[in-house]
Structure formats: structure tokens, C-alpha cells
Amino acid sequence: MDIRSQIAMVFHLDKCIGCHTCSIACKNIWTDRNGAEYMWWNNVETKPGTGYPTKWEDQKIYKGGWVKNGDKLELRVAGKPTGLTKLYHNPDMPVMDDYYEPWTYDYDHLFEAPADSDQPTATTISLVTGEPVDVKGGPNWDDDLSGTPDYARNDINLNNISAEDQESMFQLERMTMHYLPRICNHCLNPSCVAACPSGAIYKRGEDGVVLINQEKCRAWRLCVTSCPYKKSYYNWTSGKSEKCLLCYPRLETGQAPACMHSCVGRIRYLGVLLYDADKIKEYASCPNNQIIDRQMDIYLDPFSEKVTKEAKRNGIADSTIDAARESPVYKFVKDWKIALPLHAEFRTMPSLFYVPSMLPVIGKMTNGLYESTTENLWGKIEDSRLPVQYLANLFSAGNPDKIKEVLKKLMTVRYHRRKVTVNDIDDTLINDAFKTTGLTADIADAIYRLTSLIKYDERFVIPPAHREEAIEMIESTDDRKGNTGLGGNNGTRRVF
């Protein structure tokens, strides 16, 4: 066993209000500078929709992630050896129009316009060319389903949704949507790391954060192509690639990243997961219908004596193990199994999980009326305006049974809390729900507390970095400390 620690996240979609406070917090700290104007390390998309960049989920266009080729796992885009053929012409890389051309306004004209009967206007000016530009896109251009015929109806996750189900979603008076906040997933099997010819992208062993060494980056941009989530960006001013770094300077002091700290809806949770790195290749190469289960299997029980022993032997600190035991992410992902990865079929094994949205629970339209009553315990799930298959395409590699399991657990919590607070639900209904989902009243109360009554330090359980590991976190240490602290001691003096 090669046990490592991973800083992992959970986003609870029923709590997201689409305020974009997270995006602005990230923008103000990290990408408010030349060449990064179009970068949104954190963005919030409206689903259904095409997202940012446009149609990022369609790997037939962008060739991101991994693909199973027989018994082998291969990058969709060319890897390091053969990727040299695409260095100077890469047709699979998104272009500026897939994002949007960053712009400013001709404020001089606005401020210096002479007195006239007409109100002066400020022309949009491209920040790339300096010429006037007709703005046709932005990071949330389809926010709240604006431009539905052009965006929502072209969502790739609708490809296997029946025309009837689509119509129940898209008729104006029946429209349904939810928000999907996205940041870099800091994957266990990152395709961006595998694709980089210069070796500039690396995954930190101490916490799993994926970073780009700006000195080593040579702007080959294969990381942009290979990332199926399109969370690696090219800075057109510096000539370097950049990406979300999970605010690691904050993590090292036990603080939550800026996007999570600022979240108005309190939808975000962050904690430690322990995993077996020896299993990554095997589990990432499994058949598509097993990919969700195998990813969940790779995470280990921090309460196990065997796991704890192996973790310590691998250099994982006691404080990190304690954080893993208190991790809210572990509860969502492993204990309760109500959080799922986004597009697990990309086989990068993302470390960001989502609690799927249950809204709206109102049923489909029948004879001009909403059918909101049912004799079936789970009828509201089966007949939701938001098709289960759509959520499955997003979060369970197309398997609707996985989504139903999660939604039934969430509905059981609602039944239970309704029973506790209002007491108008029959005991038989509650008992049947508990029996079907495997939950208990205590577990349902725990889920309710973590999702509704959570405190800050319960949402973010972050082990501070250790001073003795500081050098390892910021630079290559081969020439500074030799083998000291790496399993042996050759007499090399540690230098701080």
C-alpha cells in the first residue's frame, strides 16, 4: 500500500444560489492581472447549458481525459512522447472564442465627450488586440438560462434524454435548472500532469494539490487540451499556463481557500481523504460501469489500524490522520455515499464531489397540471422535472441507479426531519425509507446537521502544514537536503 493524503472537496448543489461570490473572490486574488483576464479558476455554470469554455464536456471536440484502449489507459490527446507532433499545431485545443475575448471600455471617450443631446457610450475594446470588439460571450453568458435555445438545448448531457423529458424541462413555464460551481478537481490521476512535455505540472505528495511550475512551463499548452474539465489556462501575456492552486498558501496555515471561505450558500466542504496510490492505474482502467465504485474503493478508512500504520510509515503526520477522521468529505463520500464525482468517465479520478440537486421535486406535467402526488414512496424522484438520467450523465458516468440511491437517501432525510418537526408522516413510510436506503434516524440527523446547521470549522477540517516539511512544499529539494527525511540519512544538513 502506498497511502497518501488528498485534500478533497464536496459541493452541495441544493444549497448553491448562483451568486458567483466564489468566482469574484478567486478573480480578485489570483487572476486580476494582464493575460489572465479571461481566466476563471472558479466559475459557476447554469445547467442545462454549454458551460465555460463552450461545450467543455464534449471530448469528441477537445480530446481531454483518459480513454481505455483494451487493457491500457491512454490519453485522448497525445502524451509526452508523441505529443511533440502537436506542439505547433493542435486542432483539439480550445480557441479564444470558446472562452471569450477579454475586453474593456473606451472610458476616455465616455469621460471626454463634449456636451451633446445624446448620452455618450463607451465602446468595447479588446484587451488582446486593442481594437473595437463585438462581445459575444463571457464566463456566465448563459447564466440563469438566458439564451436557452442557444445554450441549454445544446447541453451535451441531453444527448440520451428523451424528447418528452427535454420538453418538460424547456417549455418556459416549466423550465428547470440548477447551478454547477467548478474549480480544478486536483485529480488522483491528472491527465494534465501526464500530458505536459516539460514536466512543469506536478501533484504535491503531501496534500495532492496539482500545481504548475512557472519556471519550467514552456507554453506547449497540452495541459489545456488534456484536462477534460478545461481548468488549465494559457496566459497570453506571460506565455505560461496557469490553473487553480487551491489557495495552497492558505491551506498550509489551516485556512479554507478563498472561494470556499467566501461561499454565501455554505455549499462547500473541504477535508482530507486517505487513498492507496498503488490502486490508481488499476481502478482508473476498470470498465465504465464500475468506475464510480472503484473510485470510492480507493479511499481508505482512517479509523483502521492497518491504514493508520501504513500511513505513518509513509510519512503522513498524525495531525493529517486526525483531520481525515474528522473530514466532512469522508462522511459525504464514504460513510453516507451521497456525493459523487463530476464526469467520472473521464478517468482522472477527480477529488471534487457533488451532492446532486433534488430540486425541483415537483412532478411532470400531465394534462396541463403538475402531478405532485404519488402513492409510490419514491415517485417524486422518478417523475422529477429534472430527469434522473441527466444527473446521471453528470455525476455517475451515465448510471441512473447511482443517482437514485443518492436521491433516495436525501429524500429519506427530508421524510425523517418532517416527521421530527411536523409529525405528519406515517411511521410506516419512514421505516420503509430507512429500510430501503440503509439509513438510520441517527445517520439522517447527522446528514441534516452537516448540511443545514454546520459550523465553519466543521465544514473545513484542514491540517496545517508542518514546518519541517516547508522546503519540500516550495522547491525541488534534491540539492538542499539530500535523503534526509526521505527514508535515510546520508549526513546532509537540512537548510532552511
Largest sheet: 4 strands, mixed
% residues in beta strands: 5-15%
3D shape: globular
Catalogue the unreliable spans.
476-496
Number of helices: 21
Average pLDDT for all residues = 87
Please identify the structural class as seen in this structure: alpha+beta
Characterise the protein shown here.
The protein has a domain at 265-459: 2-Layer Sandwich (Alpha-Beta Plaits). The chain has 21 helices and 16 strands. The strands form 7 sheets. The chain has a 4-stranded mixed β-sheet. The protein is 31% helix and 14% strand. It has helices spanning 21-30, 59-62, 107-112, 163-170, 191-195, 222-226, 248-251, 258-261, 280-284, 291-298, 305-313, 318-326, 328-335, 379-382, 388-395, 400-421, 427-437, 441-452, 456-459, 470-474, 478-481, and strands at residues 3-12, 43-47, 66-69, 72-75, 103-105, 124-126, 178-182, 201-203, 210-212, 232-235, 240-243, 268-276, 340-341, 352-355, 365-366, 369-370. The longest helix is centred in the C-terminal third of the chain and has 22 residues, at 400-421. It is globular. The protein is α+β, with helices and mostly antiparallel strands and 496 residues long. The model is unreliable at 476-496 (pLDDT under 50).
